[in-house]
Structures
1.
Amino acid sequence: MSDFAPQRIETSRLTQNVWSSGPEDGTPVLLVHGNLSSGGFWKYVADELGDDVRVIAPDLRGFGDTDPEPIDATRGLGDMVDDVHALLETLGLAGQQRVNAAGWSMGAGVLQQMMLEHPDDLGAVTLIAPMAPYGFGGTRGADGEQTTPDAAGCGAASANAAFVERLAAGDTSADDPQTSPRIIMRTFYGGGANAANLDEDFLTTELVKTRTGDDFYPGTAVASESWPGRATGDRGLLNTMSPKYYDASAIVDLDRKPAVTWIHGSDDKVVSDASMFDLATLGQLGAVPGWPGADVMPPQPMVQQTRAVLDAYRSAGGTVTEVALEGVDHGIPLAVPGRVAKEITRILVR
């Protein structure tokens, strides 16, 4: 057995920092982190997985210690998808349908797009507090209808400039809580009731490694005639999740459908039907002035959209298990790592 630790792995696309543990001949489990984190955030789940599991948890492009290659948002999360596929190729695991994968938040979005673009890579998929199949923000209804053609208020257009400035400075302090990376992590995905058992300094240090700028976080925004006056650009991280470029609902039509487990928490304020990171929700609450109303720009029903697509996935022959966690927020891999490990293990393809 090897302890959970990082190593640099050169692939055909870039050199990735990959956290790993377990025997090299163990059952491969790919763990894909979410926004404002790194592969290191999986350390608590990795500790709960069996001795026969090989954990592979890369830092995605723009995060952690992976090479800082630019992000083309017009491909959705395609740059990250192809990076992960290249890593599996380097490890001799691509195209074998035996890699078990779990993705958290944005990482679950990476896996949904990966199911479409590299359908023979994954044997089983666990989606943890996943971003909606229609992207983040700017859509209405269960079928993900886009509210504006230019995806106004989505992607980099939704970024908080003061937070970005502190992220760029590597600020790990708790000063000015409204824009502190540490406090935002602690509040929205810092482990909830399990927070006392976590190394917050380590997690915060990993968080502020997130690259900033037009090619990274948050990316570029453009002027818009629609509220709030800015819309999705074509470069950088947040734009990869805009409904202008991201739509993974076609997983319903896959010929081979990996078994899916969907884990979500009742107290999630990041991915919910009233997300505090959706400008429409903030506008409805009066925190962003000029909101045009729910008829024009309603809060995105993220959970409703995920449920609709996964229900259709099941109806089309796929296997879906829903795990609803009462009292748990967005930080599911930190809050209940043992439960996450149990659900990953339950559907392992060996």
Note: Residues 131 and 217 are 17 Å apart (CA to CA).
2.
Amino acid sequence: MQESRCAQHGLVLLGCGKMGSAMLAGWLARGLPATSVWVNDPHPSAWLSAQGVHLNEDLPSDPAVVLVAVKPQMMADALPTLKAMGNGATIFVSVAAGTTIDYFEKTLGADTPVVRAMPNTPAAISQGITAIVANAKAGTAGLDEAEVLLSAVGQVVRLETEEQIDAVTGVSGSGPAYVFHMIETMAAAGEAQGLPAALAMQLAKATVAGAGALALQSDEDPSQLRVNVTSPNGTTQAALEVLMDAETGFPALLSSAVKAATDRSKELARG
């Protein structure tokens, strides 16, 4: 496995917040030795301090991978400190939103292998999905390396161009928040119809989680699954006539929401 290269040469994790911690937990669970991991984080959690990794120590000169998980606003200060690792065999994998491959190349050197990734928050329970794209220097080998690492927290898909990552941000990067808000509003609607608040929330959470699991595991696509549970002139059809309205329902709302998130992702990339 590619992980053996990390075990031999070392893996550097720059930033270890929620996403970095989720990935680190996945790597350690899959057998990557803690002694092969260097973490640079100014405010380490108690959990991180107990993992046995090299914490805020001098970094190896040529690690196999540097995974950049700092907040975008910290990038200008953090990334230049790793310039000595650029233009070499070290692969830089970035999960920082709005930071382009070109930015990495300008900061670290044009011959630096770079993979840009867009994960989402269900990675915290190993149920995420991450889209990746690489520069020419990283190539297929770099994508393979990144996929092995990122698959520790869920599915991984490969993009054809870096430009697609903005749309990915709009759909899956920001998407969990849309679903969380749907749970909120479903629960509130149930409460408005006479259910106790706690029961309405339990029903909403379980319904969304169960429907998502069914959609993921079923051989039928979501449109057919929708048809399967919609009896003619029944309760579900009554609700869907509201939700599927072309002007006020999900089609218009979600199209506008995904476009807004995609546009904002483009703005962040332009600085």
Note: The chain has two domains: 3-165, 175-270.
3.
Amino acid sequence: MAVKKQRKKIKDKLGAYLDGRTHRSFKRTRRRDYVRGLDLPGYFSFTKYVVKTIWSYRKTLFSLVLLYSVITLLLVGIASQDLYSTISSTLNSTSGDLFSSALGQIGKSGLLFLTATTGGISQTLSEAQQMYAAIIALLTWLTTVWLLRNLMAGHKVKVRDGLYSAGAPIVSTFMVALVFIVQLLPLALALIGYAAASASGLLAGGVEAMLFWFFALLLAVLSAYWVTSTFFALIIVTLPGMYPFQALKTASALIIGRRIRILLRLVWMFVVTIFVWVILMIPLILLDSWIKSIWGAVSGFPTIPLALLILGAITVIWISSYIYLLYRKVVDDDTNPV
């Protein structure tokens, strides 16, 4: 009798789950069965809205940026100024007259930017430092979401309040983050395959290269498909009393019929992030090189490593704010499939 009740319970749960899903395996899904409304501002308008919201609470959020930077500096450290200076000197000594013009200087700054942002000047982190970095980023995410949720509700809160209160769902958030990492495994396999194929000359051309890119694209699309809802799950799991897999289920139901539109918004977020990094860092590298070329006393000051640290903190808070505000917009228009 108990077994029958358990089977009925599982069957009812599965039926309730499928009722909320418009797609069925090996069956055609008609457009009328899965289209859902999603009234969002345009890409530029929504980006402006996010920036305006952050600016409205700039005192609190910029205090969080400063706190994030200081804690990271103390526990994790920053990129190496010596490595950065060595790479810059090597480019100058081996390039000849290549970087002598204004355009050449911009090209050199671009190379230094790519080197710096891809970890070329970063020191090898110990296991403890990697753990500290992950925990700091996770707590910054939680604190940003908590602060925005309360500030937009009209509550007067400070960074201190967020630090003391936002960490409650850290275990649940960590569980969802693990699911997020697992969902990125197909993309990781594609990248590993690319490295192996490049080393073996498989990408030189022909049918082999075409098949590789086809399967690599499928793996990348699969990861993108999965993580789209998990971004929202990382927001939902911060709600009081929310469990990790309940948050994943809720996020999945929230984006049904809207996945592509939401994914494009997330891609836009990363495009804007990269653009801002480029327009801020390249002029700063040019200015840093010029100042240190005429004033040798400051040649050892870690301008670029500190800029990377601060801009990294701003990026974490920007991404947290963007996804949280996008989530609120989607929730406000939570219509069922029509």
Note: The chain has 14 helices and no strands.
4.
Amino acid sequence: MGSNNQAAMAAKKKLAADFLRKGVITAVLSGMFYGTYTAFMTYAMSMGIWSTWYGENSGLSAFAVMFLLSALGAAATDTCSAGWALGIATFKGKIGDFFRCIKTKPGMVMVGAAVIGGPIASTCYVVGLQQAGSLVVPISALCPAIGAILGRILFKQELNARMMLGIFICLVASFMIGLTGLGDDAPANLFLGLFFGLLAAFGWGLEGCVAGYGTSMIDPEIGITIRQVTSSLSNLIILVPLFSMISGVNPVSMIAATFTDATSLIWFVVAGFGSYFGFMLWYKGNAMCGAALGMSCNGMFSFWGPFFCWLILGIMFGRSGWTIPPIAWAAAVIMVIGIFTIAMNPLDLFKKQSEGA
């Protein structure tokens, strides 16, 4: 009897370890997909009609170029991502669950989180990318640190000495990235772009706090469908028309031109695919290995973002200006360490390994 119990416990531990390992892999993949989505969205916003809009003779005001086009780029990506989400949910026979869940309290929580993380944070992120390049990605990866602080303020969640150390490490990494502005080849609006990247991190950190309740009760594939549909509609119905009105341009013509420009639209479709899996795997990874560890693994997009921008934009498409300064690479690694420190005690990894052995 004793040997049977030991065998059962060993099998249970092995299953738990395998499940945790799969969860970590899933969460890491989410960060990688986030990096690819960033690169392809940036590429899309340099093709076709976008090259005209960003040109010197576009006729658009500085406000329109910075804010309207960024909101439009985020809207195009989110709309394509919502299309992927709805298509995959329909293919898997889950589209009915989408309409049922969106009416529930967890579903409405997801809607609220999507408004925070979609039209607000995503637009700030695109503004940051256009102004500071891929250096804004590690800054936006501060969202777990900001989420920890907001969780303490809003929901009285734990914020112990270890987590504060992790936040300090992330701030040091952000300062290192800011030092790249001292170089002669730095983007002209580097610090403005980093500021908007910080706003995006704030929005995503707040989204993570709000969405924690909803994602614990909803299938990740349904949760991401609710998020992306809400985000795309909020962008197209609220943010783009608002910025168009301020800029004095016709929002209908801008939106129509965006979705009829085949040259750039194909890359928005690719970016939307990456966005769908990036967020969906984030939700799924959190459910499998816990929000803390899942958040830390997903936060590795502080490395994957610049890496895929360099690989896809710089190497694959031969675009200049996407090389990453050595200090930024080092800062991205340091930020990953800080994110892990916030999310969990690094010593726990060795404890789990020794228990599994």
Note: The radius of gyration is 21 Å.
